[in-house]
Amino acid sequence: MSLRQFISAGLLGLLASLALASNAPTPAPAAKAATSSTADHSKFKALQQSFASGPEVTKACLTCHTEAAKQVHKTKHWTWEFMNPDTKQRLGKKNVINNFCTAVPSNYEFCTACHVGYGWKDQNYDFTSENNVDCLACHDTTGTYRKLPGLAGHPTYKDVEFPPKSGKIVKAPDLRAVAQGVGKSSRDTCGSCHFYGGGGDAVKHGDLDSSLKNPGKYLDVHMAKDGLNFTCGECHKTSGHDVPGSRYAVTTVEKEGGHMRGKKDANPATCQACHGGKPHQGEKADRLNAHTAKLACQTCHIPEFARAQPTKMMWDWSTAGKLDKDGKPFKIKDSVGHDAYDSKKGDFRYESNVIPDYVWFNGKVDYTLRETKLDPSKVIEINHFNGSPDDGKSKIWPIKRFVGKQPYDVGSNQLLVFHTYGKDDSALWSNFNWDKAIEFGMKEIGAEYSGKYAFVSTEMSWPITHMVAPKADALACAQCHTGPGRLDKVPGIYMPGRHGNALLDTLGWSFAGLAFLGVVAHGAGRIYTSRKGAEK
Amino acid sequence: MNANATERIYVFKRFERFWHWSQAALIITLMLTGFEVHGSYTLFGFEDAVNIHTTAAWSLVTLWVFAVFWHFTTGEWKQYIPTLDKAGAMFKYYLTGIFSHAPHPFKQTVLKKHNPLQRLAYLGFWLGMSPLIWFTGWFYLFYDQWAAWGLDAYLSLEWVAFFHTVGAFMILIFFIAHVYLATAGHTPTSHIKAMITGWEDVGH
User: Fold this and answer.
1) CA atoms of B140 and B32, how far apart (whole Å)
2) Which phi and psi angles does A466 have, rounded to 5°?
3) How close A474 comes to chain B (CA, Å)?
4) Which residue ranges make up each domain of chain B?
5) Cβ separation of B165 and A504 shorter than 8 Å?
6) Is the pTM of this model over 0.95?
7) pLDDT above 90 as % of chain A
């Protein structure tokens, strides 16, 4: 065998073995990829058993992680409740009415697919149960664990068709394999709820959607896999299960400009927590750093949201309930295939590459609660971002402004809770009857209802803070400093290039014009008289 | 007019001419970019306009350091001491005499190269427009340092920009008049030639 033959035979063999390897069955997820963890959960006796339900897994987890459930019990992920210390408003998913799916009460079984617990199906839920904490929702690494709406926070324990009548089968997860494979939370686990808020991928936030599972650098300079490859937890650095970063009480201004990560009482999820208060370097550093006195980092560095997938910008519940000529609910798609109408939900509008609205924001948010009295002739702010140019605590922030129409009680001028989902004859999504759905919902929360409803226009603000673009894509000077500028509607700033004094401009150009006319006339006179002189 | 009778004097030294023309270029640049930054039109693009404006301003500062030094070491600063002597005659000349080819009322010499109206105008430029534009421009440029200087409570960008713009309009008007009056010498081109060659025909 010559050398050449030897090499080609070797190469062939190598190729053949590669081909065989790619056909080989993939190893079970439990045989994990390299991890730095000091524990291999598949070796734990407590997990070497078959589990019939989620709570059984949790019980096993708690035999070692004795404090974990108690920690989770204190968090918003568990309580769905947040007492705002500034406004004293009782917020959280459990209490707030928004203008997406509106309200959780009377729809628990559906909504609690995103609760870190099992079994929350009505308002009598036991918030003290440790076994009902769902460890796997956040710690699954297999990608097979999925909680479906309608199961009150449980995964499916048998293969089911989901969505119903879709022909798609969701397999029951192998809880033993999932339990043995647990690890740190990931984009996938956080994203399984946060990417799909508002009832679908990219619907709610505009800066959080499934494209963050594997974003390009252009979409997210921190999370790109070929770049920094951050997980959510890299910024939302969690201790004792309490995930920092809140849109109920946003950190808009760092007290000392910036701080070192890990410092007590400071939010690790802000830009400044890593970049400091004077983040710019190079030639334009001083001028750009001066901008940070008034601008949130996000204002320039997230120039648009919904850059990978369109986000919902409008949701009009008032048209929900139309049925086709056969009495069946129907959907209408927009030109890119997103729902423009759904009998269950009403009219929608999706938008891509949306230019945010900009507001002064000091982190304090006032909510329109169910109890709040409305003026239905006006657009109701579901939440109001406080801030002003002069309070010393505000910066100009980019926001997504989400508008819609939703039912309110004509008698009491208050927002209504209505029953969307349930296996009964009142749920809007099965029976398309607003009267029944509202009556049911209001009875569920024990509130009075006058019996008369109408639809009120609402808007809700969402801070834009994720999907930070690479610096080359940050806003350029001219996008604000020449017209029409991004910040034209923001009050209380003097913007060079946009806010010159109109009277001064009129006077200045007039005098300059007069001076010009004056010298032209004078010159013409000189030319005229000198010609006349020459003629003589 | 008898050409033989024309007298030539060396009015503008080499540095003075260099100073004048580079200053002219810089001021034109500053006006073009400045009014763009102000928002009056788009020419270079905002960011480039700001950068060019800043560079031109620093260049002019440097030039002025040399110019001030030159004026004091040569004693040429005395050329700007104001006088009202013949100012009325000059005014009348520009208003009427220039049209009837009356003799220029001011006889230029090396020691008195500016006519009294020029002296007043230049003095106004040095003591009025320049300080206004430089002080406001300085604060505008160092906006990011106000807090460090403890001045942020006393200054507002809006008013700093306002007075900077006032200065800019004054200089624009000065510029229009200045360029035109450059043609109003002994002959229409005598001033301009002098600014290029240094030598001026001063008549007889």
Assistant:
1) 17
2) -100, 175
3) 14
4) 3-18+56-201
5) yes
6) no
7) 81
